Amino acid sequence: MMLRIGIKGFSLLEVMVATCILALGLILIYESFFTLLDSYSYYTNYLRVVNWLEEKFWEVQDGLMRLGDSFSVQPQGTHHFYKNFNWDLSYNLMDTLTNLYQINLTLFWKEGKRQIELLRDTYVFYKKEE
Hints:
By secondary structure, this protein is α+β, with helices and mostly antiparallel strands. The chain has one domain (12-125). It is 43% helix and 32% strand. The chain has 1 helix and 4 strands, in the order H-E-E-E-E. It has one helix at 12-67, and strands spanning 76-80, 84-95, 100-111, 114-125. It has a 4-stranded antiparallel β-sheet, covered by helices on one side. The longest helix has 56 residues, at 12-67. It is rod-shaped, with a radius of gyration of 29 Å.
């Protein structure tokens, strides 16, 4: 086999390696783009419900601070924004001497194939008026 000096071009191996590198780069860009979209969707939903979650929390705190044991609230429900957000609420009397209540509020929704949960806990005192 004779080697020609004046002919320039790429060998088949060089073209295949360049194609593999380009394909790998495109796959990485594709994956990072969809990861970014998933993160954007999560934070958009989070920002939609976080204010409502805090308002619900304050409502329960205020009710327990004013009414104590006689306060009642719906323990669970669904809130509709652009998708369904389900919530569970519970409160327990932690200390009967100081009337300390623990409030647990959980908000959850489905984000693609995964279940997202936001948990908020706080404590509140009920002071009986004399």
